[in-house]
Design a protein that fits this description.
about 160 residues, alpha+beta, about 35% strand, about 35% helix
């Protein structure tokens, strides 16, 4: 039976949006509180992170923590006080995963400190909950942020992404 979609999302689309919203809020809170345990609960490892700097595959929790700490260091240096995230689009894929696009705004007080950017992520069910499996950060005006993601504190990175 087809679902009615006139003027509203289907239940499946609403569910996909809710998954993305929950994880976006959880990870934002964890970054601002520098709470790696809560942040890590939202990720499936291994996970990959793509930026204009290249692709980084985080194979272990230690590597995920390295990227997390590098981003937290960057946010601390900029005196970030809030991450405002909005789901732009979300949908279930044929394989049961969810694809979502999140707009991210980085604030210091009331000041927007970099242009808003979009994070495209794929979410999968793992360990009884939805987790981020991979992300693409479309952020070209914040080299310190993309360097923190792609290189971490230990300055390790995989080969540049070529596609």
């Amino acid at each position: 039976m087809a679902r009615e979609t006139v003027g509203q999302m289907t239940g499946t689309e609403q569910d996909a949006v809710a998954i993305c919203e929950r994880i976006a809020e959880e990870t934002a809170r964890a970054l601002l509180a520098r709470d790696f345990e809560s942040f890590a609960a939202a990720y499936r490892v291994p996970t990959s992170v793509d930026t204009f700097e290249g692709r980084r595959t985080l194979e272990t929790m230690d590597e995920l923590e390295d990227a997390f700490e590098a981003v937290c260091d960057h946010y601390e240096m900029l005196a970030v006080t809030d991450l405002v995230r909005h789901v732009v689009a979300a949908a279930f894929n044929a394989d049961g995963s969810v694809s979502g696009a999140i707009e991210n705004r980085v604030l210091s007080g009331a000041l927007l400190i970099q242009a808003p950017y979009v994070i495209y992520s794929t979410y999968v069910e793992a360990d009884g909950r939805w987790k981020i499996a991979e992300s693409v950060y479309v952020c070209d005006d914040a080299p310190g942020f993309t360097r923190a993601l792609s290189q971490g504190r230990r300055q390790k990175t995989s080969a540049p992404h070529t596609s």
